[in-house]
């Protein structure tokens, strides 16, 4: 993986940074030279490492405002600064609306929208107290801009997250920049739960114009860019990381009989 820019001396927090996309983001930040602190409710089976360095892990439930506030205070107190927050923690099981009940769907919204809001508010309190400010990156999803049957509450939360980021970018300028990475399908250790075996993953990948699912480290590269000084004039933006999106279904339908 090519290092996009140098983040040496920076301190970054990645929520949910121990697995899947979050681990890819953590590795990319480590490769770029940042000190990285990850947090989640449970640690991974093994630490996240890259470039001979290891990310630190602290157990945190990002839905608990008091715990989150204390966590960010401790990070800045120990490291002397907080430069980057990546709001990656999130996700959802496949569940049709009629099957879940309001409370289960509300928990999905809590994790994917309210928790990033909680973390961002806590991080902002630390970032605004330092001359260099900081950068917040939301991990969004294409589910926030298209119908998402089976993950409707997740899609609604991701749509709200993107709007939240745009408003934060205005309110917190010029010290703190806020942007969103809008992800398409990413190949992780849990891909089989959504797409089946290797043939299924390959078949789903062929629906993407670039012909495959993204790798978590590629998401990490985009995240490092938005967190870096190379993106110093980018705030309130949504960067699509989806391999070209989805081929419109009507094109295949129109040629099916030919």
Question: What does it look like?
Answer:
With 258 residues, the protein is an alpha/beta fold. 42% of the residues lie in helices and 17% in strands. It contains nine helices and nine strands. The chain has helices at residues 20-31, 65-79, 97-100, 102-127, 152-171, 191-195, 198-205, 216-227, 249-255; strands at 11-15, 35-40, 49-50, 53-54, 56-59, 84-87, 134-141, 176-183, 238-241. Helix 1 (20-31) crosses helix 8 (216-227) and helix 2 runs parallel beside helix 4. The protein starts with 10 loop residues before the first strand and ends with a helix.
Brief digest:
This protein is α/β, with parallel strands linked by helices and 258 residues long.
- Count of DSSP-assigned helices: 9
Q: Care to count the β-strands?
A: 9
Structural category: alpha/beta
Helicity, as a percent range = 40-55%
What is the rounded distance between the termini?
A: 43 Å
Gross geometry: globular
Assembly status: single chain
Low-confidence stretches: none
What does the main sheet amount to? 7 strands, parallel
Strand order of the largest sheet: 5-2-1-6-7-8-9
What integer is the average pLDDT?
Answer: 92
The value of Rg in angstroms is 18 Å
What share of the residues does DSSP label as strand, in percent? 15-25%
The helix-strand sequence is: EHEEEEHEHHEHEHHHEH
Pfam families: adh_short_C2
Keywords: Oxidoreductase
Organism: Streptomyces violaceochromogenes
Family: Belongs to the short-chain dehydrogenases/reductases (SDR) family.
């Amino acid at each position: 993986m090519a290092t996009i820019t140098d983040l040496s001396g920076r301190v970054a927090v990645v929520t949910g940074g121990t697995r899947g996309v979050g681990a890819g983001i953590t590795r990319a930040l480590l490769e770029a030279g940042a000190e990285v602190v990850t947090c989640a409710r449970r640690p991974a089976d093994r630490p996240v490492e890259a470039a001979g360095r290891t990310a630190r892990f602290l157990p945190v439930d990002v839905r608990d405002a008091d715990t989150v506030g204390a966590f960010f205070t401790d990070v800045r107190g120990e490291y002397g600064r907080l430069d980057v927050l990546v709001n990656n923690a999130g996700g959802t099981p496949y569940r049709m609306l009629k099957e879940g009940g309001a409370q289960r769907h509300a928990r999905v919204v809590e994790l994917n929208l309210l928790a990033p809001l909680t973390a961002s508010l806590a991080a902002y309190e630390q970032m605004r107290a330092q001359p260099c400010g900081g950068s917040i990156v939301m991990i969004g999803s294409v589910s926030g801009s298209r119908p998402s049957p089976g993950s409707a509450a997740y899609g609604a939360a991701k749509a709200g997250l993107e709007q939240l980021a745009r408003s934060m970018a205005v309110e917190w300028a010029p010290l703190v920049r806020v942007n969103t990475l809008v992800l398409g399908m990413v190949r992780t250790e849990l891909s089989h739960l959504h797409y089946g075996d290797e043939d299924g993953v390959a078949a789903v990948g062929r629906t993407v114009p670039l012909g495959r699912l993204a790798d978590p480290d590629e998401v990490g590269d985009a995240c490092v860019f938005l967190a870096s000084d190379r993106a110093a004039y980018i705030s309130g933006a949504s960067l699509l990381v989806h391999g070209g999106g989805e081929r419109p279904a009507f094109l295949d339908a129109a040629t099916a009989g030919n």
